[in-house]
């Protein structure tokens, strides 16, 4: 009797312990770190009876097509749910409604085709981070999501990742019901344009990531829309920018924008001559815009000044030649005098050399010298005929001076 009572007691205790340590099929439970993991177990439905202590639930790499309100019932302590890569296609209404403390929801790597308008509604708007990277099946899913964001009351959402969804177009005002959003990731999509109203209603945005899309430029309305976001961090790199004249306004915006832009990654994809050139700092001439009137005027004044310089130089040259012409007689005289002086000096040396070498040949050399001089006259034909015969003053002077030098 006593023994059976003890057994019953132990049995109850064991069962209670069992319930407490219970872990859903296909999952691993870590009570100490309050985490439940159900990784790559080919589960077809979300696990039931997740332990009450769990804060973080990781269900990835399974085959769960549909989740709904019955998927997560009891645990109100869950703050993080990771549901990535589960081939999810459908998210029913109020799926997470019971998770009033849910802050982090990762739905990345799924193929959501059907998102109920109230799929993300949770009383008290606890959600802070939502990862929908590579999880939208097609454009219909995006419109569904837009509705779900509007109806979900996600006033507390701070971070939203919509990267890798092949998005080509963002519905206007898509984020207008996320007033406290701080970080928006739209990288690795196919966006071609930002329109007026695309980012309306976001007054606390700090980071906007538009890298790895298909923007070829940003037009006036897009730039105004980006300006409205203030001096936030805007990532625009790795887009196929076409650096033709139409990109002029975007370059000017990059030149002066208050926003912190990743300007080093904002580069031309075409044309060939500008491939990989940084957009910021490009001039309107670089991108082949028609040279504005002002620059043309500047060019014209430059040309005019060259012509003027040429004229002045020509005039100076002409005046110089004219002066030379007026002084032609004086010049002639001067040239003759110079030539005579030069010749006399040379002859003086010649004479002295002959006298030094052999005094007896003095008169012969004088004769030959006269002959030489006469032949020189016939060549130049400029000296008066009498100078050739009679020795000039300088010659006489040299003849008289040279003997004392030789003494
Ligand atoms: C949630 O956590 C609190 C405190 O850790 C605990 O007292 C409570 O029992 C937990 N809820 C459930 C359903 O286990
Ligand atoms: C969202 O999930 C993807 C894939 O798991 C990851 O690469 C990315 O960093 C996540 N986004 C954020 C903002 O953490
Ligand atoms: C998106 O996929 C769903 C489900 O396959 C389909 O009903 C819908 O027509 C598709 N939408 C578009 C725009 O292709
Ligand atoms: C970009 O998104 C596509 C799907 O749209 C994906 O296959 C690819 O891995 C993503 N690339 C990066 C770098 O995340
Ligand atoms: C951008 O700035 C550079 C100088 O940093 C200037 O030469 C260029 O003309 C500017 N481009 C435009 C389009 O304003």
TrEMBL record:
The keyword rRNA-binding does not apply. PROSITE patterns: LRR (PS51450). Residues 375-407 are annotated as: Disordered. The chain crosses the membrane at residues 306-326. Residues 239-290 form the LRRCT domain. Pfam families: LRR_1, LRR_8. This is Trophoblast glycoprotein 1a. The lineage of its organism: Eukaryota, Metazoa, Chordata, Craniata, Vertebrata.
